[in-house]
Amino acid sequence: MGESETTTVVSMDKLSELPPFIIHHIMSCLSAKESARTSILSKRWKALYTSFPILDFYESYTYFTGENRNIKKRSFLIPYEQTRKFRKKLRKFIKFVDVSLVRFCELEFSMQKFRLIIGLLDVKQLSFVLDRWLGLVVENKVKELDFEVQTSGYRVYTLSQTIYFAKSITSLKLSGCKLELPCGDIRLYALKSLSLDRVCITEEMLQKLISQCSLLEDLHLSFLALKHIYISKPQRLKIISIMESPDELQSVQIVVPSLEQFSLICKESILIDMVECPNLMVLELTGVLFTDHEFRVLISSFPLLEDLNVRFCLLLERITISSNLLKNLSISLCLNLMAIDIDAPNLLSFRYYDNPIPVSSMNVPCPWKVKLSTGEVDPDTRWYLNVKEFLAGSKQIEDVILTVSSKKKNSFNFDECRERSPSFPCEIGNLRVFIYEPSEHYAALLDGLLEVCYPRTLSILRYEDSSFIEWLCENLMNVDASCCDSHDIKCWRHYLKDFKGFLVPKIGDQKPILVDNLKDAPHQYGTETFLFHLNWCFPKFLKKA
Hints:
Structural class: alpha/beta
Largest sheet: 19 strands, mixed
Protein name: F-box domain-containing protein
Radius of gyration: 31 Å
Pfam family, one: LRR_At1g61320_AtMIF1
Domain F-box: 12-61
Helix content: 25-40%
Strand content: 25-35%
Number of helices: 15
């Protein structure tokens, strides 16, 4: 036996001597397939695998055919030529689950987790198998149950009512099955987390299920195809998330004073009643079509709100917020937003991404992150001025991303800009720019960007060729400062002291590479980003202003 083989055997012996709970923890970090392979290492490992309290079984149509199908869909259609292969594999899988489950249950240990994802062709024929498995896991006091059934066509597996009496379950995730109203009370006395995804359920059943789980803390509902969602009674419920398809949900009413976090994704105009949730601290709204007034009324219901994320709310034209407790605010993809009025003196972060440039009144003394685009409009002096005026609302702008493209003309004019806005551009941390401009627009582009703000670093992202980088380096090195002597506040050329250029590698977390000759750099290195450190020197009267 060679030295390396001896070392391997000794290492395996030491690994096998670890206490059972440590080996079980190692198995919990592996996939189900990897965990099963440990059983061949030794007799002790085989025994420990058999007693491993996390049973994870994942088999679906995608596993057998190798096709890229979305397993979250409620149903799948199988081509005729794949049906026989699928049935054969499914029989083997069912036998494997049967043997594994029975073997574990014979040990009479409590089960920590049971996860099953299975695709069925014949729901009626195999329902009794799923019922029996659920009966066994409930009998063995399972704590976490993750159960997803993918079915063919419109036939859906009806969940065994044994689940409603599983007193040991603390976490329950159900997907692709039908939940029928039980005759008696639901006895999920230990349930703390409930997730329902694409299940068939009535409003009455949902309300009963939630209201009779007194320890429930987390609730996640997605694609239930309900018109109305009413949630009340759980005294400990802290987190609710709802995701629904368009043209389905009409109203959401939540009467949960303990609620702290709420997320709603719904591309529809719906009625939201959350007046009885005064302790809410985190609110995320995506795609909700409500008016400015409806938004203000909703926000006013949460005096303790600390985190607000508004995304893709297309009817909003003005956002008005006044709060001394708000700490984090994010507004993105509200494509019709025209004005924002924010009074949040204790805000810690502000993120404004992919919205129109707004008319703003801001009292938010915190770092800003801003992302703006010219969109379908060719940038002119007015566009650059609008960006400049918006950024002037803060002295702590951390990061600005601009996407600049023009079809016909980039018509920035420095003299016109100075006449309309004689103020000094703000200083910011990093300006990142996506550029889609022909070479004849380079001069107007650079003057416009450096009239908007003076960045400590300038990043050119995803350039299509090296011509702009070469042009930029030449113009930064050969500055003509005689261009605007008639103005008190001059252009960027008068204040740029020096600069350094870096290449940001494509691969990995490598540090930027300092480059002496940037003109030749695009041809020598593979990169998507050029980074310039800009060193500014301003007159004292400008700094005071």
